[in-house]
Amino acid sequence: MARRWAALLAAVGLVAVALGLAAPAQAGTRQLKVATYNIYLGADLAPLALAQTPQELVARAGIAYDQVVATDFPSRARAISRLVRDERPEVIGLQEVALWKKGPLRGPLHTTYDFLDILLRELRDAGLHYRAAAVDNTGTMTLPISATERVSFTNRDVILVEDGLPVTNAQSHLYVAKFSFTTPFGVTFTFPRGWSAVDVALKGKPARVRVATTHLQPGALLIRNAQAQELYAALAQSPYPVTALGDFNALPIEPIGPYSTFTTGGYDDAWRTIHGPGGGFTAIQDPDLRNLPSKLSARIDYVFYQPAHLSAVSAHLIGDKARDRTPTGLWPSDHAGLVVGLRLQ
To answer: Global pTM?
Structure first.
């Protein structure tokens, strides 16, 4: 009797394979879940560019740092870790992973907020284990915030990879194209941007996928577009299928720019593939993160992938609902995150 049941089950299995019914289980080992999330540096730095005098610049810098304190990244990191725990992406591209330091005007600076360390700690507390596989450090700006104190801000983009996922060829680069401006009182600020990439092996398979993340320059369209072209050209050298994810600071409707560079150059937009052109808004909440209802009304964060090698099987937002806020009413970020499931063809 036992042999008859075994024979029957084997026959059912053969039929299932012949009909393709067993494909999803097999495909599951060839899937990769990725996410992109601009986690917000904690303050709006744009007003710094409007300062007309050195004194006004100091005052504006002080206001910005006070906003960093008020937007409470430790609390936001806890909220982000809960969102990640619900989704379990294997690779996460993060933007605006700030490092803030503070100290006396003519003395040493000490770290006040290291967003990367804080987030990794909160992820561990949530039972998750990620490591920073690639970090692009796009420069540090130091400014006085009063007659006695100064702060420094270091901007970083980071690729987090789930522990146990094999990674090779971690790399980080700065773009040649970069934005700079000079204040009315003669101080010049330069803002480099960059990108990082890693080659990850799919669980249980020798195949690899190159995952890249970036945060392109906002506001200065020519520089932003040049950065997108640099990234596209660099990723064209990959021997593996590519997914490029991040904050591209570009709308889908722009005829020239990052979106068209990728979507006319052999990539698909995961959100559009799954949901069509509507929705998917990822930007942008108020700088103090306390607005309600949500002000997300633009789609500028994307997961691009090469459909010749990969297919999108899911795409949805995180951090976009009122229930995702911290207990004190802060949004986790001024952006929503985007989580995408990809399948290797």
So the answer is: 0.90
